[in-house]
Amino acid sequence: MMQALRYLAFSWIVFFACHSDTPLDPRFQEALDNGYLAHEGFVRSLRFVEDWLVYADPATGLIPRNLTVSKDFWNAEDAAADNYPFMVLTTYLLDKELFEGKMKSILAKEKELTNRVDRLPDDFSFSRQGFRKDEINMDGIIFGSSEYIKDGLLPLTEYLGESPWSDRMIGMLDDIWKHAVYDTPFGKIPSTNVEVNGELLQALSRVYWMTNDPKYLEWAIRLGDYYLLGNQHPTRDLSLIRLRDHGCEIVSGLTELYVSLAYTDPEKKARYQPHLYEMLDRILEVGRNEHGLFYNQVNPITGEILDAGIADTWGYTLNAYYSVFLVDSHQAYREPVLEVFRNLNHYEYFDWERGSADGYADAIESALNLLNREPSPKAERWIDSQMQVMWSMQDSAHRTQTEEFKGTGIIEGWHGDGNFARTTIMYCLWKTQGTTLDPWRKNVFLGAKLDGDELEISLLAEEHYSGKLQFDFPRHSVHFNLPLDYPRINQFPEWFVITKDSSYLVHFVNDGKTRKMSGAEILEGIPVDLVQNVGYYLIVEPAEN
């Protein structure tokens, strides 16, 4: 009864706020502020897509690697891996017509024109309308395919689930292993490159759960044995370990396999444990600065710092520590995350990657993904401030903008622009707590704030809008069948999730009504009809409350 009275009183507060000069309850003001930030991010992401597509090859529709020296060709490791997938995700959320049309046609044309060895792609020249190089470089083809899988198609599958892009991912993964030619004591592997093998470990671990096909786990174990049980241990046997992207993938990859083994083969996990811990402990010992952030490169054997630059991808490596903490309850691997969060204030406006937006994107993603697991007001403030810096790099006055791109949505004119959209969408989904609109419109603002178990949602339209409010769900288990939502590189974190078999109370604050709904009902979407310039508010909470 007290809860019902509370919401009745709250509804009257909002009613008067909408129809008089009465101030709005501050809880909804924060949700509305989040809606303004999410709206700006979505608009920026859509501008990026629309203006990049102007430069697509007229004959094929494929986007170039970049808009300067590599304007004449498409490639897998850059155009396909870093740029195109986040065009796909942006349009899926914000422009379904562009998603169903141009985005799907690019995928179909890419498969038609660029597959060179079975389903593995190679560079495609626009001027030649054929492959850029006459000779086949199999190592290069496998590298490009692994990049496309890990950086682009895995994140898409995390959000979209089964789709033509997940089919592309699995097809390439199968064919990479079809062409495994490097002999090891543990069987043939497709590469001896630590970046490639780290990426493959991540993909194999997730695709195993997605498909329930044991071959993917068997292949992952072959790589795990190669690094942890052979003579390629990353910190015992190798004189260089790179703790930023293009090297740090092996740390997360081995950890993702370790998490899978915790649920599938505890004996194998136990055999790996001392060797995995040895790697993680040595990195903590010699690989960090005074604030807990990772150096770009160190010699793990001697402890010499080979590149004292600070890795913008610091969270990619911390994901590994936190994942082991989740499965082993090893507190020493949670502490490095907390230490970085305590020190982020030292890295406002930091020159992550010579001032590039891509450096900011990776650093912000690092914080967002771990914030999803460890609440930190200090980290929240840091993320908000650094997003403004990254967004400014899309604006005409910023020094990274060339004359050609001023006034457009293009950020810097290279494939890293896609990471601008990737991290922006991650940020926007945090500000909406995973809620979205179908259809999305530029004149509608949606924001949310989580208060305990209650999700407070604010909607405001500049003109009449009718559509559905969509909610997030446990994608890690629905799309990938993962037994644990451990932190993963380039994932889109789950914030307020609806489970179909649970019950919820939905408080329609404007009219003072409360409705008990099943998760399955809510996941169908809640219809909303918005009056011009009149705020619309909901509170959603588990019915068990």
Kindly describe this structure.
The structure is a single chain. The chain has 545 residues and is of the alpha+beta class. It has a domain of 104 residues: Sandwich (Immunoglobulin-like), CATH 2.60.40.1180. Helices cover 50% and strands 13% of the residues. It contains 17 helices and 16 strands. α3 packs antiparallel against α4. The chain is globular, with a radius of gyration of 24 Å. It starts with a helix and ends with a strand.
Question: How would you sum up the major sheet?
Answer: 5 strands, antiparallel
* Strand arrangement, major sheet: 10-11-16-13-14
CATH architecture of the domain at 2-30 and 442-471 and 498-542: Sandwich
What's the CATH superfamily of the domain at 2-30 and 442-471 and 498-542, by name? Golgi alpha-mannosidase II
Helix content: 40-55%
Portion of residues in beta strands equals 5-15%
Instruction: Extract low-pLDDT stretches.
Output: 1-23
Question: What tags apply to this protein structure?
Answer:
alpha+beta; five-stranded antiparallel β-sheet; three-stranded antiparallel β-sheet; 17 helices; 16 strands
Summarize the structure.
The chain contains 17 helices and 16 strands. The chain is α+β, with helices and mostly antiparallel strands and 545 residues long.
What is the topology?
Layout: H1 2-19, H2 26-53, E1 73-74, H3 76-94, H4 96-114, E2 115-117, E3 120-121, E4 124-125, E5 130-131, H5 138-160, H6 164-178, H7 194-211, H8 214-228, E6 241-242, H9 249-264, H10 266-286, E7 295-298, E8 305-310, H11 314-328, H12 335-343, H13 357-371, H14 377-392, H15 417-431, E9 436-438, E10 444-451, E11 454-461, E12 465-470, H16 475-478, E13 503-508, E14 513-518, H17 519-523, E15 526-530, E16 536-542
Antiparallel strand pairs: 1-4, 2-3, 4-5, 6-7, 7-8, 9-12, 10-11, 11-16, 12-15, 13-14, 13-16
Helix pairs in contact: 2-3, 2-15, 3-4, 3-5, 3-15, 5-6, 5-7, 7-8, 7-9, 9-10, 9-11, 11-13, 13-14, 13-15
